[in-house]
Structures are given as C-alpha cells and as structure tokens.
Write a structure and sequence with these properties.
Elements: H1 2-8, E1 13-17, H2 25-28, H3 39-43, H4 49-52, E2 54-55, E3 62-65, H5 76-88, E4 93-97, H6 106-110, E5 115-120, H7 124-141, E6 145-153, H8 155-159, H9 166-173, E7 177-182, H10 186-193, H11 213-219
Parallel strand pairs: 1-3, 1-4, 5-6, 6-7
Antiparallel strand pairs: 2-3
Pfam families: CbiA
GO molecular function, one term: ATP binding
Organism: human gut metagenome
Length: 221
Amino acid sequence: GVGAALAQLGSKVLLIDGDCGLRNLDIVLGMSDRVVYSFADVAGGAVPLADAMACHPDMKTLYLLTAPVALPALSERGMEQLAVQAEEAGFDYLLIDGPAGLPAELSFLAHIATQAIIVTSTDRVCVRGAERCARKLEEEYCIQRIRMVLNRVRPQLISHGKSGNIDDAMDEAGLPLLGLVPEDVDLISCSNSGRSIHAVKHDGRGSRLCEYRPAAQRRAY
C-alpha cells in the first residue's frame, strides 16, 4: 500500500517481497503473471536488476522483485550489489516487505535497510511482537529510524473496548506512529481475484490508496 501510494505521488519505487514463506506480494499487486525472477536471482548474480524486475501494469513507476520459492545461500555483498543497482537505476525508494516475526532471512534483508516500518495491529500480542522486532532491528542492525503502521484498524471495536486502542499500542511498542490502515474487506476479494487493491473504487472517491497516502507522504520526508 505505501509503495503504491508513493508511486502515485510520483516516486520511482522498487518493492522487494522478502517473505520467502508466504511469497504473495505479486498477488496483492495483481502481478502474478508478470514476475519471473526473484531478488535471489539478482543478489546471486544470475540476472541483472534491469532484467529481473517487473513493472506494474498501471503504475509505471512501481516495480517488483518477488521472493524465491526456496531461499538459497546469499551473501550480504550480493544484497549490497542489488541495492547499488537500484540506486543506479534511479529508484527513489527501495521497500522490502519483510517476513513476520524474527526469521533467519531478516538478517540479510535488514543489512541493506536504513529505516524500518513495522506493520502491526492493535492486538496486544501483535504489539508485543512489533516491540521485539523493533528492538532487534535497532540493537543488531543499527537501524535507528523505526516507525509503526497500525493495520486492520476497527474503530467500532476500539470505541466499544473490544480491541486495543491506538494510544496503548504506541505506548507498548514504544514506536512513533506513521499511519493507520482501516479494516478493508475489499483486500480479500482483490487478492482472490488477482486484482490490485488500487483499482477498487468506492463511492466515487477513487482508489483505496487514499488511505495509504498520508503514511506515504510522511514517509517521503
């Protein structure tokens, strides 16, 4: 969502699906028929970035590198070379959609990161996980600028005390808030149909990416 919103704001964005377990960012973006190579092909030196990345069919400044089916042995040097190629290609942002929790692949993904956005919900279990992940990124990978996006926010449940509230989530995670993403049933239908969420219209208001734009605008500064 944030990557697509940045692209709509005029930035050139490279998305990397870093979740080798789920490997589903191409489905969310409606790009399943466009991806051939993974970031491992580029980091391993088999294919240059220019040939491996896939361009979004509607947003011409949004590109994707998917995750490999099975994670091969990769070096930090290989990931650094991938980042260099992205910079040489003129990308304004390289966003890595990392795996949930603290898996082994987090180490080489975090190695090329300069900032982090942790996406979680207001549920206390998820917030605790976000806090642990933030501390690991800070202490082991020296990433100092870490912010939080609260996903699947349900105002009615929060107002009735049936879901954790936003202030408590910020306090428990110890992270500044970058943005909020409301619960959206259209995301499920889009994923199942292979359509990108950005194409869904609501009551003439335009793309659902309007909900990601505030976070994208804050991310840009």
